[in-house]
Amino acid sequence: MVGGEATDQGDCSKFRTTIPYCCEKTPTIVDLLPGTPYNQQYTNCCKGGVLSSWVQDPVNAAASFQISVGQAGTTNKTVRLPKNFTLNTPGPGYTCGPANVVKPTQFISPDKRRVTQAMMTWNVTCIYSQFLAQAAPTCCVSLSSFYNENVVPCATCSCGCQSNATHPGSCVESDSPHLASVVSASDKNSYTPLVRCTNHMCPIRVHWHVKENYVQYWRVKITVTNFNYRMNYSDWNLVVQHPNFDNLTQIFSYNYKSMTPYGRINDTAMLWGITFYNDILMQSGPLGNVQSELLFQKGEAFTFDKGWAFPRRVYFNGDNCVMPPPDAYPRLPNSGFQQHVSLLTLIMTFLSTVAVMYAYA
To answer: Which end of the chain is more exposed for a tag (fewer CB within 10 A), N or C?
Structure first.
């Protein structure tokens, strides 16, 4: 094996001369760490098992390793497809399908004058499911706007409910005098969130604030807050759906990539942190948030009415965040309650002012 390693060699007692690297029928393969000696590396290997998304970092979005399988024969009729693939990640969530034979992979010689091909090539596709990964959602969305003083919080119990009576230690009060000891004593190897006690009980909250309204533009502020005391989210990303992303003019302190999952309709964008600046979302605390602002040009469909200025969907690290109910969105002030001054009142006020000025002249 090159570029990876099996976690267990297994029972190789039946081999007397050349001892195989691994004799397990169901081996677990892990990626090698960065800094592995070159004679143990393989092309595109040694990422330490950490893969970025293709949009954020194409170089670190793939990892490879090579296995030489003994007693497999030398023809594509003796080689058997592997079965029962499982993609192990921190926590469940991935389901892998069967191996499918595809067109053999071709290899080009260094001088680019000769092409050889593999005996057989197969693909295995693994799909992530948020419902398999955890019983409750992991993030929620809150909303606010400059034209309404009310802040729409995350829906209550968006990611589970606070139940210290039945599950002690499920959350930590931020003003607890023993906060440091509780966090330090928590199981650091556990990926179960240890969250700050809130009404929503989510590890992540995304806040969308409609900040300014200009003549031809409008501005939005996005804040991502980490309520999880156990985890730093490195290389995090947001996927936001909003109809005005087709007119995005400028974005501050986030990276941006337009996505068109619906053909030519440009209403979805991927946002992520800038390297060495805010690409790591720290644990819950004063530094546990990242912020940015987006400047949009007003398109033909622009309006602040009926919640149009707020996102349709928000995803954090691939998980669908819980949105507030539509009837709770910040509303525009009701024009029916505005005071209107009649033309007769203005004329009478003007004549009264002139009369007073004439009397004291």
So the answer is: C
Question: Could you tell me the pTM of the whole model?
Answer: 0.81
Contact call for residues 132 and 313 (beta carbons, < 8 A): no
Identity at 17, one-letter amino acid code: T
Does the pLDDT of residue 338 top 70, yes or no? Answer: no
Domains defined along the chain, listed by start? 136-161+193-328 (2.60.40.290)
* Residue whose structure tokens are 């991935």: 94
Q: Nearest-CA neighbor of 22 among 66, 78, 67? A: 67
Q: What is the pLDDT of residues 89-148, one digit of tens each?
A: 877 889 999 999 999 999 999 999 999 998 889 999 999 998 888 888 999 999 999 999
Name the range with the highest mean pLDDT among 185-194, 197-206, 349-358: 197-206
Distance CA 142, CA 209 (A): 9
